[in-house]
């Protein structure tokens, strides 16, 4: 065995991997499935409820999204969303509620730094890249669409 | 005058004593294994302040006041304070110390700060440029999360190897005392920066283990001792993974750590899913040292303790630039 002074980074990487704990994939997936699925079921229930009030599909859908966003922010504010996420992992991240949490949690966190330099400039700290690259991807998509339409028009 | 022994170690000639010490912690620390030993604990993690950083300052302020009181000294009787923390520009130390009006030296050693400040205080007193020197540090879970990770309420998942930053602070007062029971500082060993390429900020124990191994090995070589010569070899916050790696690394050089090895990160919390691989932060080694270890030395339960606090020296910038995590460990030999 090599002594500490002769150990290479690659060898230490192997040692670290051996010594580290691994995430428990099966329970993690199950947690994500239950929590993420639960959020989706709640969404569907709200959607059906709003439709039963006589709202059309589009309005009911919008109202359902708004309700989930509201609930996510409420849970974040009450300090419960993080606890749910620690159990549910990606299950709380993927639905629309994850995005609402990513916006509201920095808003709460940076309150001591004031409204402008605190909340205003830090609110998009986590969600910002998603918006930037989301917009960028939509531009690329638009250009590809225009080219495809032009090409199919020529032939 | 302190004297150099071997390549890295400095031996105190006058053996300065730790004449006062105190630890304070938050709610989670209070409910942990050393909860009852803390001099003061707070159920409100904000300590009635407006922000987490200010709460950390209040924790530090509290520990130093208590330590000075236990040393039966007034604030103006200390000649210098050595302190540091994890935040940008050492915010919590600066704001926690300003009311004391004692000459101040700010240190940065990340989670190794307790050993770093204690070593500097010991050297200052031993060399005679200070009669009484204070060494202190603090960390707060919430301010550290803000500095290095995501907002508190962000729905992120903690990985099993991540460690939980301790909300706590420890302070020691170093000077000369006639009381026999006061712990004495025998020698110190300032560590070299070690980096074996770990980039995972959620596995700090792995990043710090090589630094701890290097410092322990250097100290043992310089002093011509083996681990069996100590009642306790105590690392700062290597946690579960780092402790395993440290033992593996030292074994390669023929140094066997046995039952007399422990880690503050494993002593401070009960094991639960939140805590992950153990406690971390400047406050981790500081609170365990001041609440548990020093009292045991005073009572004669422990004779020779090699206290090796470890620090991961990354910054949020270095992590974003994809750089690996440099680490350092400093050792202080405390004897009865």
What does this structure look like?
The complex is a heterodimer of chains A (155) and B (336). Chain A has 155 residues and is mostly helical. Chain A folds into two domains: 21-123, no CATH class; 127-155. Helices cover 78% and strands 0% of the residues of chain A. Chain A is built from eight helices and no strands. Chain A has helices spanning 9-19, 25-52, 57-77, 81-88, 90-93, 96-109, 115-122, 128-154. In chain A, helix 2 (25-52) crosses helix 4 (81-88). The longest helix of chain A has 28 residues, at 25-52. The radius of gyration of chain A is 23 Å and the shape is extended. The mean pLDDT of chain A is 92. With 336 residues, chain B is an alpha/beta fold. Chain B has two domains: 16-175, Stage V sporulation protein AD (Peroxisomal Thiolase, Chain A, domain 1); 184-335, Peroxisomal Thiolase, Chain A, domain 1 (3-Layer(aba) Sandwich), CATH 3.40.47. Chain B is built from ten helices and 15 strands. Chain B has helices at residues 27-30, 52-70, 91-97, 113-127, 141-148, 204-223, 239-252, 264-267, 282-298, 316-320, and strands at 3-5, 9-11, 17-25, 40-41, 80-84, 104-106, 133-139, 164-165, 168-175, 184-189, 232-235, 261-263, 279-280, 304-312, 327-335. In chain B, the strands form three sheets. In chain B, strands 1-2-10-15-14-11-12 form a seven-stranded mixed β-sheet, with helices on both faces. Chain B has a six-stranded mixed β-sheet with strand order 4-3-9-7-5-6, with helices on both faces. In chain B, helix 2 crosses helix 3 and helix 6 packs across helix 7 (239-252).
